[in-house]
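Replying to the earlier thread about multi-chain prediction with a worked example.

Input:
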Amino acid sequence: MEQKTDAKTERYNPQETEQKWQARWAADGLHDVDLRAPGDKFYFLTMLPYTSGDLHVGHWYAMAPSDAGARYQKMRGKHVFFPIGFDAFGLPAENAAIKRGIHPRKWTYDNIDRMRSQLRSMGTMFDFSHEAISADPEFYRWNQWFFVKMFERGLAYQRMAPANWCPKDQTVLANEQVVNGVCERCGTPVIQRDLKQWFFRITEYAEELLDFSKVQWPDPIATMQRNWIGRSEGLEAGFDLDVPGVDEEEIRVFTTRPDTIFGVTSMVLAPEHPLVPKITTPEQKVKVEAYIDQARRKTEIDRLSTERERTGVFTGAYCVNRFNGERNPIWIADYVLLWYGTGAVMGVPAHDTRDFDFAKKMGLPIPVVVAPPVWDGSPLEEPYTDPGTMVNSGRFDGLPSEEGKAAVIAFAEEQGWGQRRITYRIRDWLISRQRYWGTPIPIIHCPKDGPVAVPEADLPVVLPDDAEFAPTGESPLAKHEGFVNAKCPKCGDPGRRETDTMDTFMDSNWYFVRYLSPDYHDAPVDPSLAERWLPVDQYTGGAEHAVMHLLYARFFWKVMRDLGVVKGDEPFTRLFNQGQLLGPDGQRMSKSRGNVVAPDDQVAKYGADTFRCYLMFIGPWEEGGPFRLDGISGVERWLNRAWNIVLTEPPSGQADEAGAKALGRLTHQTVKRVTEDVEGFRWNTAIAGLMEMVNGLSRARESGLVDAAAWSDAVQKMILMMAPLAPHIAEELWFRAGGAYSVHQQQWPTWDEELLRSDEITLVVQVNGKVRDRIEASAGISEDAAKALALASEAVLRHLDGKTPRKVIYVPGKLVSIVV
RNA sequence: GCCGAAGUGGCGGAAUGGCAGACGCGGCAGACUCAAAAUCUGCUGGGGGGUAACCCUCGUGCCGGUUCAAGUCCGGCCUUCGGCACCA
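Result:
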């Protein structure tokens, strides 16, 4: 710490400094990690960017703090792996390619080149030597390998499922290509059409996915995932069919309210329910068929919209409630979903809001079977959906709802009418996409053997570059003769390759596993590296991924575990979801709104350090919020002030003991504060703490003589704490202050609790809860002395107004509260 | 409707139940300068009182409650944002 520079002649030049160190770091491979080197591993992962073009401020908002977190862990002595890759498959590449007449591959890889250089300009410690790109055959080959393994185990299967279909373009549309129910390209109303599609059996893991006991995740995220999985317990029971000439004997129904089973007045089936055509009476046939046809035309979003008036049609058939022998009409209605429960709902008007509205409208009876706590037996004015006491329910009368549920289920099981059942809201994951730019599904359809998996030795099934991916009305790969025609791996007869590609969420399921060994050829991941480095210790990413990506990735991890690829039950031990950075207008940033802030301009103007620190300073990371440039000069000033502090040492000499002690206290207090804030990703307050330290050092310098040792210690620690946040200027200052290269290989400073303590404290004195005085006292003051001091205060005496205190409360080292 | 998050100065925001507004922006005043920029210093929630140091009072979306003490805890609302949307 000897070197001095004349700061009066030199100002901090961010552009020059940043370029210099970035070049040096790259040349030294400072951030290339040897995963086999010894050390206490820490896998710090940030969600990989989609290759949409330029990096925008949102990427910086996500990545700069992650980088700071990774750098901090490294300074804490961890062996840190902080990789980066690119999510490169997907619809936007196809759209952009169609629009601009460039091949999706070229568009994507050009974007990657640009994003890579932008990422480097941020000054991150990303390890580019372990990069993975999902559109590389060496990556997606393992998507296919996983698919084959899952197919063999029955975890990947095919069934009919509706897809958005544009009748004019004769093509399948993704949800985002459907705008207000019409095709975004030609405006034709979109219909639902059944196609044979591939699914992953995520429901197999539903129960395990509900368990968050093995991870440290924020509660709201766990709650959202639990709601998404939507476990509910209830009774599945049969109602006797009372339809002449029909072989089936019963309708299976699922209910979470078995305690209301005596209040059933109707049965409602999904329009697609297989029983519907069988039970519909000839008189009702025309109406029913028209209704089914109509339902078919609606997208699921329309169908489930609560805005819509509820509709339904009577089938003409009846069924019998085994509990009370009552005959109930059977309806169909499109609000009943075939895939949830049993595709049949019992109508209980008294205790279900939508059944109540329907019965009221139709003038149907509304028998009460669960009595509210206060109820005189008169008809209900509104549905009663809370727990109560069972009435009009035969042998179950008088039971409270919860007990009643169990009793009804037990009775049903005894009688052989039904059984306890758990259902989940979550559905199996539809992974088929009728698109070009994705991982080909490695299946060959043989007329004789059906769908046959492509043998492992033949993987990858390479996505051909010369497909016609422009929209023509057919799946792009389906027209590529060279791709489609393939021999059945089983019998050698001519077969047809599957032409669907995989949902791109497949790529994000496991990319972080591939990062460990992106060139490994014998398995998705080198087992020895997987063993050592997984699971991920800290994952960060946008809150918008709270459910979909994070749930799919957990599911897929469990699949990988069961395949023996990885060990342990969860992929991400700790999770942090940052909020969304909005445009200056408070709206979500988008090109069409014209509110996208380009980071490159800001970096050119202020430098990367200022810009990344500003993004961390604007507010709590988890909250996100509108991005305005208003306050960036504050951060710029802070870094410049820090620069000046380091480069111009104060007049040194023998300062008084109190001054040295005060400076030491400031240093240790700041180390404690900043350490705790950085641990909790509270960047805004961490930076505020460092700003205060600079202010404190400035004041100390102004005051004249400063203890040289205390000053040097303070400055050194300050630079170290700045290093994760502002890596370039910290490196330069460290160098100027005579520190050894690199600041990023130094140890994070520690603090001494002893040195935090001040000799003097400020006692706050309250009278009847209001602050009336502040008294300086020695830190070791006794309770009695503190109380005496407070009671002697002039301000207190004034407010006591001659009265005797009833009570005096003492909070050690802080406050005396007097009650009159 | 359900689930989740959040409401604090002109603005971004700080506050283990213990001095509300740290830190920063902006603003005002001053220093430096021929001048400006940059930099530095001081002040800056509203209202009232005092020549002044200061003092009083109101104040964290709204209404209640608990407590010596509430931005913070409890009950009930209102608003905004995000997610899911008839889940039987």
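Residues 1-9, 303-307 of chain A have pLDDT under 50 and may be disordered.

Feel free to reuse this layout for your own posts.
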